[in-house]
Amino acid sequence: MRAVVQRVKHAHVTVEDEKVGRIEKGLLVFLGVEKGDNEVDLNYIVDKVTGLRIFEDQNGKMNLSVRDVGGSILAVSQFTLHGDCRKGRRPSFIRAAEPDVAKWYYEQFIQKVGEMGIPVAQGVFQAKMEVTLINDGPVTILLDSKKTF
User: Is 111 a residue of the active site?
Assistant: First the structure.
C-alpha cells in the first residue's frame, strides 16, 4: 500500500463540478492499494499517516501530528501510485489491486482514521476527480507499507 501525504492549508475534491470532500488545515492523502496488500499494510499506513510529526510546534520544528494540531484528513484513492514506469514510457498498472479490493481497503482506511477521532473527508472511488490544494511548506511525504523507499 502506498500513500502520498501532503500537509495542506486546505484542500478539496471536485467530481462533475460538485465539491465532494473538503478540509481545512490537515493532510491530503492519496492512497494506492497493491495486489497482495492486507490488514498489516493497512494498519501500517493508518498508523504512519495519523502519527507523522510534520506540523510545526511553537518553536517552528516539525514535531506535531495531524491529531496534535486538530487537523483533518482528505483521502483520495489513486491506483496510479502503483504505476511501473521502469520499462518504456507508458506506465503499467499490473501491480495495482483490483477495484473491489482497492475500494474495500480505501473505505477501511477512512473508517480507521475516523475511529481515531480525526475528521476525514473523501473523494469518490473510481471517479474522475479534480483535486485542489494549498500545500503548506511544501511538505510531501511518500509512504510504502512494503518499505520500498
Answer: no
In CATH terms, the superfamily for domain 2-144 is D-tyrosyl-tRNA(Tyr) deacylase (3.50.80.10)
Question: What's this model's pTM, rounded to 2 decimal places?
Answer: 0.96
Residue 78 designated active-site: yes
Write the burial class of residue 119 (CB in 10 Å: 0-12 exposed, 13-18 middle, 19+ buried): middle
pLDDT of residue 67: 97
The active-site residue out of 6, 78, 109, 122 is 78
Residues in contact with 144: Cβ distance below 8 Å, sequence separation at least 6, in sequence order: 1, 2, 3
79 classed as catalytic: yes
Catalytic residue among 6, 14, 55, 79: 79
Task: Average pLDDT across each block of 10 residues of the chain; the chain has 149 residues. List them in order.
Answer: 98 97 98 98 98 97 98 98 94 97 98 98 97 97 93
Domain boundaries, the chain: 2-144
- Cell numbers for 84, please give them: 511501473
